Amino acid sequence: MARGKEIRNKIRSVQSTQKITRAMQMVAAAKMRKAQERMRATRPYAEGLVAIMRHIRAAHPEYRHPLLAVRPVRRAAVLVVTSDRGLAGALNVNVLRVAVGQLKEWEEAGIQGEVAVLGNKGAAYFRRLRAPVVAQLAPLGDRPTLQSIIGVVKVLVDAYREERLDRIALVYSRFENTMSQVAVIEDLLPLPEPGPDVNRHRWDYLYEPEAQDVLSDILTRYVETRVHGVVIENLASEQAARMVAMRAATDNAGRLIGDLKLAYNKARQAAITQEIAEIVSGASAV
Question: Could you tell me where the DSSP H helices lie in the chain?
Fold first, then answer.
């Protein structure tokens, strides 16, 4: 029964792994719900900020803020948002593939590309790639705050103000639903111009201090808030991907346990049959 003992040990090992993956699935589900709640809670503030920004911009078109300036692109940067840990399926791989594809596209067009990274996985990947990383935050943590990411955002915003960068792109995993997370790339700077109908009521605010100062502060805060919202959304995507991956691992462990139990029963039955045959043979010889 040496083979049977070996199979029993494998069954116990897989059962222990199954308990771990099931626990990780439940933890990821709880964290995903909390991340979704945070994501929903930040949207009204971001939408209000955008509405005020667009209204001031439309009411004072003569003011040209540096963050709204569109220039020919000679140098650009990509801000890559990844997770701190793995076991999340292809989440980080897809994000990094999109980022590297954008850098290669810029290189072919003669544009000098730089990288800023949020998250351990992205930082480790671009360190191995020896890419020009201008700023990074690793690890992000389970509850990243606006204050924690301001340093990285400030490096990029200051570079754009000083015309050391002409475009900044944002790469992250967009949360579609629990089963779908899509790696996307979006422009962070320059900021888009307001639409034609944002100031249709033809009224304006009373500003203290001047409208230009208010707009400057709001534009900077808008960039910081947008990056923070993307980080929270990427966190929700990470937990959803991990929950799905751990559920698949748990199901695979269950199927493997069933196969091992079947193999154990076959080995046990073969050993019993062999023992009976030996007893019968011995009795016949006597």
Answer: 2-59, 91-108, 120-129, 146-161, 211-285
Give the global pTM: 0.81
Strands 133-137 and 112-118, how do they pair? parallel
CATH numbers and ranges of domains, the chain: 2-25+247-279 (1.10.287.80), 27-194+203-243 (3.40.1380.10)
CA distances from 274 to 11, 39, 117, 260, 282 (A): 24, 64, 64, 21, 12
Query: What are the CA-CA distances from residue 189 to residues 28, 73, 76 (Å)?
Result: 33, 12, 10
Q: pLDDT by residue (tens digit) across 174-193? A: 988 888 889 999 988 887 66
Nearest Cα to Cα of residue 35 among 232, 238, 182: 232
Residue 97 has pLDDT above 90, yes or no: yes
